[in-house]
Amino acid sequence: MKPSRYTRSTMSSSQVQIAQQVVESILAQKLSPGERLGEQELAELFGVSRTLVREALMQLQARGFVEVRTRKGWYVVEPSVEEARDAFSARRIIEGGILREAGRPLQSVLHRLRDHIAQEEQAIEEADAATRAFLLADFHVCLAECLGQRLLCDVLRDLTARTTLAASLYQSKHDAGQSCAEHAAIVAALEQGQLESARELMLTHIGSVEAALGSSAPDTAAGGERLRAALTQLARPPLRKIS
Question: Has domain 81-211 been given CATH number 1.20.120.530?
Answer without folding.
Answer: yes
